[in-house]
């Protein structure tokens, strides 16, 4: 397996990866979502958002041969919301279902932390849907602590915010 920064990856390939990852959540997370809410990845993080985000972010891709099996987008947090300018944000992380629980996500997060440190960040923040309990456990097992919950952050629920000092 190879982990690389790939600023030139086609946006449609990146969106397809994250869509597949989101649409096939871990069973414990997937069971928490009500299918009647008609939740789609594009509602959270579609290609339109990628166009804006990718101007200022790093793209991490994990490949197994020619196949992209995971990835993440990380970048500086908006200085208007976090004025100290020392925070990086993990905007999204996804690992294909067949590669989960094999260390791929942890490998990506290690790279996220390396990139953040190199760029002067003192901490990393992220958020996840309140119903994604296994995802929250994943981050907490990597040393992230819960900052709080923002009610109604997503159109279909609240967001749990986590942080890790570097």
Q: What's a quick, concise take on this entry?
A:
With 166 residues, the chain is of the alpha+beta class.
Q: What number of structural domains do the residues give? A: 1
What is the strand arrangement across the widest sheet? 1-2-3-4-5-7-6
Give the low-confidence spans. none
Q: Which second-level CATH architecture applies?
A: 3-Layer(aba) Sandwich
Largest sheet data:
7 strands, mixed
- Give the integer mean of the pLDDT values: 84
Run of helices and strands: EHHHHEEEHEHEE
**What percentage of amino acids are in beta strands?**
25-35%
Q: Tell me, what is the CATH class?
A: Alpha Beta
Global shape = globular
C-alpha termini separation: 26 Å
What structural class results from the helix and strand content?
A: alpha+beta
The H-level CATH homologous superfamily, spelled out, is Gcn5-related N-acetyltransferase (GNAT)
- The name of the CATH topology is Aminopeptidase
Q: In angstroms, what is the radius of gyration?
A: 15 Å
Q: How many β-strand runs? A: 7
How many distinct helices? 6
The helix content, as a percent range, equals: 25-40%
Overview of this protein structure:
With 166 residues, the chain is α+β, with helices and mostly antiparallel strands. The chain has one domain: Aminopeptidase. The chain contains 6 helices and 7 strands; from the N terminus they run βααααβββαβαββ. A 7-stranded mixed beta sheet has the order 1-2-3-4-5-7-6. The radius of gyration is 15 Å and the shape is globular.
């Amino acid at each position: 397996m190879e982990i690389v920064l790939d600023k030139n990856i086609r946006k449609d390939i990146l969106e397809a990866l994250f869509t597949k990852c989101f649409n096939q959540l871990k069973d414990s997370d997937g069971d928490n979502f009500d299918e009647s809410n008609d939740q789609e990845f594009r509602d959270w993080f579609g290609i339109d958002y990628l166009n804006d985000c990718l101007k200022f972010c790093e793209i991490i891709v994990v490949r197994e041969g020619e196949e992209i099996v995971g990835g993440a987008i990380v970048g500086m947090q908006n200085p208007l919301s976090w004025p100290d300018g020392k925070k990086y944000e993990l905007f999204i992380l996804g690992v294909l279902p067949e590669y989960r629980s094999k260390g791929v996500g942890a490998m990506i997060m290690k790279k996220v932390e390396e990139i953040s440190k190199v760029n002067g960040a003192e901490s990393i923040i992220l958020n996840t849907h309140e119903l994604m309990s296994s995802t929250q456990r994943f981050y907490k097992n990597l040393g992230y602590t819960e900052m709080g919950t923002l009610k109604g952050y997503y159109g279909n629920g609240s967001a749990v915010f986590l942080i890790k000092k570097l």
